[in-house]
Amino acid sequence: MNQVAEVTAHSHIHRDDVGAKIGMWLFLFTELILFGGMFLAYAVYRFSYRDYFALASKELDVFIGLINTLVLLTSSLTMAMSITALRKGSKKLSLVFLGSTIFFALLFLVNKYFEWSAKFHHGLFPGSNELLSLSRGEIIYFGLYYVMTGLHALHVIVGFVILAFMFVFVVKGKVNQDYYIMLENSGLYWHLVDIIWIFLFPLFYLIH
Amino acid sequence: MSATTYSYDGNGSNSNHLDYLHSPKKYKGIFNWIFSTDHKKIGILYLISMLTFFAVGVIFGFLMRLELIAPGRTIMDAQTYNQIFTLHGVIMIFLFIIPGLPAVFGNFFLPIMIGARDVAFPRLNLFSWWLFVIGGFVAVTSLFLPGGPADTGWTFYIPYSVRTSTNVIPALMGAFILGFSSILTGLNFITTIHRLRAPGMSWFKMPLFVWSLYATGWVQILATPIVGITLLLVSIERWFGVGIFDPALGGDPILYQHLFWIYSHPAVYIMILPAMGVISEIIPVFARRTIFGYRFIAFSSIAIALVGSLVWAHHMFTVGMSGTAMWLFSLLTFLVAIPSAIKVFNWVATLYKGSIELEPPMLFALAFIFNFSIGGFTGLMQGALSLNIHIHDTYFIVGHFHYVMFGGTGFGIFAALHHWFPKMFGRMYNKRVAKVSWLFMFVGFHLLYFPKFIMGYQGMPRRYYDFLPEFHTYQIISTIGSWILIIGLVIMFINLIVALRKGKAAPSNPWGGATLEWAIPSPPTHENFEKIPVIEKEPYDYSHYELEEEVKN
């Protein structure tokens, strides 16, 4: 409420960091539910096509998945460290950590690119003759695999762009020790991207 | 004023500030509007765009009714008819009813009613409007693409929506973008209500319209993403053939229906809750009484939002679910009627021994209660499993949801428009003409939709291009009703447009309302309040009624 009282009579611009964070959390709920719809579809089809899902999941490379999991987990760590560094007033260190987060995001995408390319090379992509000759359960498995990891990759790309903007803002001082809510909210978004992967990894790669 | 310690001189000129329509401009001409982050201007932008789309939807509805005036081909072929009822549904639902109250009147009045200068995220608010317009245009472009607009109905049921050669994707993408816009509006409102209430504006001093917007906001946030992902999946299905819903590839079309209704049923509460909020505002003003059962009305909004999120499968009683699921969803459907009935009871109890003034907003509000009661009761009939099988997918359903959506929310929107028009534009419309337009609309509405209950009960299926001769009389009555309704709409809009140009200047409190928006000048200044008010009294306190009367004269 204090922030409101401080508003000057001639300006709409006010600062409310708590409000900004509430808004971000609400947005994260919507993201969770967006993916929730897909997880629901996954659960339903896993129930109907259990054996085929187990069969199809053997096609995925657990090693690549594990690498990507480690990459994303580390990126979440560097993200959190970047925020802490900025809060403690070390702009340079913050930029180093933020830069590493961006690097890890890129690494994840490159890894994903090679993983998908290999699948495409084997003729396993939606609508391919190879895939259509498989059982229905396997078609659905790969359908879900491409849609869910694809949507997740899209979020990684969005996160990458957001973090790149944050990097520029920190360099320019627009985001700084006293005003870091934007970086914090970007961090929240990045952690969401991370946690969704934490669920995707076992569901597609590990459970047989 | 009685509602607040905030004072003004009663002439609506309490400060040197210009009103929001004439405040200093950053951009010129139309850019002053489409780049403005002022919640009031964004509200007006929504109003204009929403009414434009509404006009398009009305024209499609008119054409459908004209086609059905006689059996067989009258003015269009069957394919065109299918496309027109799809567009009518998509436009009316996603572009008129859903944004109607929250985006227009919520934007304009939510910050004022809680004593704030703007919403929590003004730029995000403008972005929502841009998304709304883009989504609307994407949905409408399918009209002009080869293949024509979608012919699936607004529900886009699989597998037909994957097979048809019409342009389903623009409609899906349009709805997806509009969903995004709706989410951002809900998010903005919830944050605003949590963070920007004026000092003293505790939760139970908030006007009930704000409560209903709060409940609506949560439904928007929690339900819309599901339909977002579902519509996206249908698009992906059409583009790449991934098979998630397509039974030919192993997918489950019933899963699509579940996912669709998990959103689309709560969406009907996004449509009706704010209208209930508007009625809760209007009834006490024109009955000159404190609202009866304030807390019950406030909590019933939340209860409707909660229970309403768990009833979706009552749209699917004929698809072959388990018996347990059937009776559970039937039970929940009956339960959701309780909070709705509490509201109706409280409105009627507020009227009892009130000093009722039948001004235009009140007439629309009373029509709301009447129409909504019929619509709600016929809805309950469909919640009964045995009866549902008989009337499923008939005109009975069409009658039911038009009574709730048009007779309820539509009349709610018109009630809000007449109630707040003087505040929004600082001008008064011709009340007599407004009452005449109301009469035309009320009579036309019932002539148009009541025969649908009878036809539906006798077995006339919905969405059919042709009908048996025994339904002919009812179809004619229904079509004539649509003409009377449209005459009423035209009179109403001409009346309001004339008032914009030539109407008398409206006082700041033309109806004697007690909520905060009536304590500031008409139209409001750019900053809403010169000084943020401190709230001490209840929102519907009419104990100072004589003071209000002075202001009025």
Which fold name fills CATH's third level, the topology of chain B?
Cytochrome C Oxidase, Chain A
What is the CATH third-level topology name of chain A?
A: Four Helix Bundle (Hemerythrin (Met), subunit A)
Strand content of chain B: under 5%
Query: What is the level 1 CATH name of chain B?
Result: Mainly Alpha
Order of helices and strands of chain A: HHHHHHHH
What is the residue-mean pLDDT of chain A, rounded to a whole number?
A: 90
CATH class of chain A: Mainly Alpha
How many beta-strand runs of chain B? 2
How far from one another are the termini of chain A? 53 Å
> What's the architecture of chain A in CATH terms?
Up-down Bundle
- What would the principal axes of the Cα set say about the shape of chain A? elongated
Question: In which order are the strands of the major sheet of chain B placed?
Answer: 1-2
Per DSSP, the total helix count of chain B is 16
CATH architecture of chain B: Up-down Bundle
Average predicted confidence as pLDDT of chain B:
91
**CATH homology group of chain B:** Cytochrome c oxidase-like, subunit I domain
N-to-C SSE series of chain B? HHHHHHHHHHHHHEHHEH
**Main beta-sheet strand count, sense and barrel state of chain B:** 2 strands, antiparallel
| Sheet/helix structural class of chain B | mainly alpha
Number of domains of chain A: 1
Number of distinct helices of chain A: 8
